[in-house]
Amino acid sequence: MLCCFQQNLTAATWTNFLGDLRWGTAANWSPNTSPNANGAVADFQVNVPGATVIANTSSSGGNNTPLLTMLKLGDTNGSDALTINKGTPAATNSRLHFTNSTGSVLIEKRGNGNDTINVGQIRTYNTNLDITFVGNTGSLTIDCDIAQQSTPT
User: Fold this and answer.
1) Can you give the pLDDT at residue 118?
2) Spatial separation of the C-alpha atoms in residues 79 and 133, rounded to whole Å
3) Residue 18 has pLDDT above 60, yes or no
4) Residue 122, Cβ neighbours under 10 Å: how many?
5) How far apart are CA 118 and CA 83, in angstroms?
6) Spatial distance between the Cα atoms of 100 and 69, rounded to a whole number of angstroms
7) CA dist 104 to 25, 33, 43, 148, Å?
8) Is the alpha carbon torsion for 54, 142, 128, 94 positive or negative?
9) What is the pTM of this model?
10) Which residues contact 141 (CB under 8 A, 6 or more apart)?
């Protein structure tokens, strides 16, 4: 008998382009919480209203290291670029952490925008990192180290 276990994913979608543009600010997300758990999905596949920079910082501007299973990027209604960076001034230890207790983790890129990830580091924990492009002509630049570890720190 074959049996499959599919992890429940909990998505949070970026909705506030008029706020402080900080990842750790709950009011920037729907539902009203920033994604940070095994199974979390950070969804930036929305109508981006112009080239936008999202700071991967806490709500106060300090270091942020959200734990994700999936990151979704891409302007759904045009070609505006989305950048996720360390913030200004740079929160030098801000990283994106990826884990999935049941398989690989994913960065999914859509749209025609030329998106960038420029955080302190991307870390994966006991899993593979898959990067998928879904249609359109946009690009994704990853301008940081990618490391694999056995457990989150």
Assistant:
1) 96
2) 15
3) yes
4) 21
5) 7
6) 6
7) 27, 24, 17, 12
8) negative
9) 0.92
10) 114, 115, 116, 117, 118
